[in-house]
Design goal:
Low-confidence stretches: none
Number of domains: 1
Largest sheet: 2 strands, antiparallel
Strand content: under 5%
Number of helices: 7
Shape: globular
Distance between the termini: 28 Å
């Protein structure tokens, strides 16, 4: 969509080891926005974050960017279900995703920060502190708006 062939190939190589893991594939079971799965949303955020880093000319830690972006919604539940605390999903899911990613993949502190801060400013006390976190937070909002609007019924 946004990346040229060389950029897409490089991103695919960065993503492959993590994206093929069965734990990550589980995200296909859950709906994120409209008709978009959590897995597809995270792939889109990863691609958009990477694209933004290239177009802005920012030198970033690409493995951390890709890992944080792909796992930013690794909470593994359907947030649309009626359950206690369900209305607080926007506030609580970054911590759940971070804990799951830390436990399953042993991610770095930087990657944990990317995941924890992706909902800023909603998660007021977890602001992005590195370029990678800012890119994922921005890309997440961009993709979320697109997916939500595309999922709306036409009158």
């Amino acid at each position: 969509m946004y990346l040229n062939t060389r950029e897409r190939r490089h991103l695919r190589n960065l993503l492959a080891p993590l994206a093929q893991r069965p734990e990550v594939q589980q995200m296909k079971q859950f709906t994120q926005h409209g008709r978009v799965s959590t897995y597809e949303h995270c792939r889109r955020v990863t691609e958009r974050s990477y694209w933004l880093s290239l177009r802005l000319g920012w030198k970033v830690d690409e493995p951390a960017l890709v890992t944080g972006a792909l796992l930013h919604d690794f909470y593994l539940y359907d947030w649309h279900d009626k359950r206690p605390g369900g209305k607080l999903h926007g506030f609580t899911h970054p911590a759940a995703a971070c804990e799951n990613a830390r436990r399953v993949f042993g991610i770095s502190k930087k990657e944990q920060g990317i995941i924890r801060s992706h909902m800023w400013p909603l998660t007021l006390f977890h602001a992005p502190v590195c370029r990678e976190a800012w890119l994922v937070s921005l890309a997440d909002k961009w993709c979320s708006v697109e997916e939500t609007l595309a999922g709306r019924k036409k009158n």
